[in-house]
Amino acid sequence: MFVSHIKLKNWRNFRNVDVAMGDRVFLVGPNASGKSNFLDVFRFLRDIVKPGGGLQKAVSDRGGISKLLCLSARRDPEIEIEIHVSDNPDKCPLWEYSFGIKQESTGHHKLYLTHEKVIMGDKKVLERPDKDDKQDRLRLTQTHLEQINANAQFRVISDFFSTVLYFNLIPQLLQHPNDFPPAFDSSEDPFGRNFLKRIGDTPKNTRESRLKKIETALQMAVPQLTQLTYIIDAKEGISHLEAVYDHWRPHAGRQREDQFSDGTLRLIALLWSLLDSDSLLLFEEPELSLHTGIVNKLPSLMHRLLSKQRKKRQVILSTHSSELLSDKAIDGREVLVLSPGKEGTSVKSAYDITQIRTLLKTGMSVAEAVIPHIEPSNVRQLDLFNG
Predict the structure, then answer these.
(1) Residue pLDDT, tens place only, 110-169
(2) How many secondary structure helices (H) and strands (E) does the chain include?
(3) Chain segment 283-328, per-residue pLDDT in tens
(4) Cβ contact 282:38 at 8 Å
(5) Checking CA distances to 297, which of 65, 102, 135, 193 falls within 20 to 30 Å?
(6) What are the boundaries of each domain within the chain?
(7) Within 13 Å of residue 20, how many CA atoms lie on the same side as its CB?
(8) pTM of the entire structure?
(9) Cα dihedral angle (316, 320, 321, 325), rounded to 10 degrees?
């Protein structure tokens, strides 16, 4: 399934967002324009429906509604999220799910739903508040989406949100795990502390098949690497990734993950995540620590890996990389441009921005057409900065 359309109101950086989305989405924009906050919408929905989660916890984990409310909201302190879900990004949505939340300004400052709606095709499945909500207002502190006894008719949406995967591996968590406190651990594990466990928990045949594919890619990208395997240390009982490199001394070319370069670890994690499931996949700046030659090939590599899977999946990634966006196969309709302003950040398809569309029609790549457009207006003054 895919998110084919998203509407936001007063969510973090965004006063209003109303954009279509395809099976591959590139988020581009200046620093602090809201790329991470845009991705967090999908994590927020996942946190609402996951076991032990819920609306109140999802908001609390983000510092409360005051941290979520757009600074440009002023006298309209309601946050609204609307998601259209389809089995094909080119078709009409199968489902539309939306809700609004608002905090009372008096008394206990409780967070309440202002509405919750579910539409299947052209049929309205849910509309709240209903008569039961009006008789017992505390019901509006929870979404029906998170309640098994209330979401039977649209549980497919809940199941879809529950599988959203955000992954942004921090290599040092694998290289030096004892240097980091348990606070880095979480059930989501977005930064990869338990990445090796995730590999180990995968059925053996599937694990070996994926690692073989990753090994093939690494042989092209990492000099002298010839083999990648998952092993368990017989003495310590600890799992490791082990790579074999060409070396003139026998056995001298073996390395484990604590000796891998940051780029090698991030590339392994990226490839594993692409092969891992058919859920919505979120990436932040996958180009980090990678050579520009590899970054340039990432879009086509992602496309090939995803197209070979039995079920198509959607990938949404943020990037600052002109090398990544230089792939001529990237369509302007796949790119969402974030532009910060006094009234919050606007989000538009690159193809809907006249200046960019004109450049793309001349044969320019997305990098050539978009990167200059999002460059901070005063960035050239850094040449004059002397501390």
Answers:
(1) 899 999 999 998 899 999 999 999 999 999 999 999 999 999 999 999 999 999 999 888
(2) 13, 15
(3) 999 999 999 999 999 999 888 888 877 777 899 999 999 999 999 8
(4) no
(5) 193
(6) 1-25+33-161+331-380
(7) 14
(8) 0.91
(9) 50
